[in-house]
Amino acid sequence: MSTEANPLLSRVLNARNRLMASGLYLADPSIMANVLWVREGRGHVLSKTFPTTKMAKTADETADETADETADETDPKENTDSTVDNADVPHILTPNPGLPPRPERAILSAIACIDHDDFWLVADGGYHGPTEVCKEILDIKPSCALTHPGLEPVRTDFAVVLQTLREITQKCVTSGYTAGRSFFTWSNQIPTRFKLRHQLFEPLQGDEDHGGVPTPDSPCEDAFTFEQWPLTRERNRAELLTLKSTHRLLPVPAYDLEGNLLKPSTYRRYLQGALVEIHFTLSHWGIAGVKRDVYGGEIELIRVLEPPPASSAPVQKRKLPHHLDTDDGPAKKRAVA
Question: How far apart are CA 211 and CA 241, in angstroms?
């Protein structure tokens, strides 16, 4: 079928060609030469390749800098142990005017379907209240799983995407640790999906005050304010408003077919089950208490290539009379003999 007769296929092929040219498309066979795990704090981030210099120390050389402490799987910034076996993983020192700049994080890309069932990419991540995992609303990170698309050639590409991600994660492992199960979904020891999340809150810097609305690229509309931000439970509004003086809200960087930023109230309608072009970064940290390696993907950009299919459930139309007689009432059920 020609692409002229199939607008969807045309959009997908155009996106695929553009991503292939970037060098960071996960179905590109050459991508492994373009990325490198780099030490950052007590964890690692996947960065674009760069020449190793004297400013870089291997993970083995910095093993004594890590603390043997426990941490929650959702928080890579605190209490982690990141000593790794791979001696090729360099440690980037604190920025110094006399040293070269840090390497840029690799923004990976893929074309996939957002899983319909494993979908928490709503405005507040489905927050009902404090739990063992999310002790407060500030801990929330909306997430979704990415699964195979039904259209070729990206359906075949997706198998390569999963294999490439597996190879990338295996390049950064901690001696004696097992791999966490939060990034990949497995079936018979084979990854079938991977999960990404979105950072919902960002601390304000200094005297910065944006009223909760990201600037300058996002429209300053009521839909993006703390007061109007959609919540699963409105009773959590007061807790959300306490963050207004210290944080700003970060809408999911998701765009529709016309290139418009999605409003928070429309995330489920436009993203759940959609075919998308998605860009994300990748990080690694270790949890010493349970000796587990954890990998996390942070969403950088989502472009909808095909919205979710409309519901096939029939809608029952209810007819209302223009006039109701005094003696009329709801129809009684017919007696069953």
Answer: 11
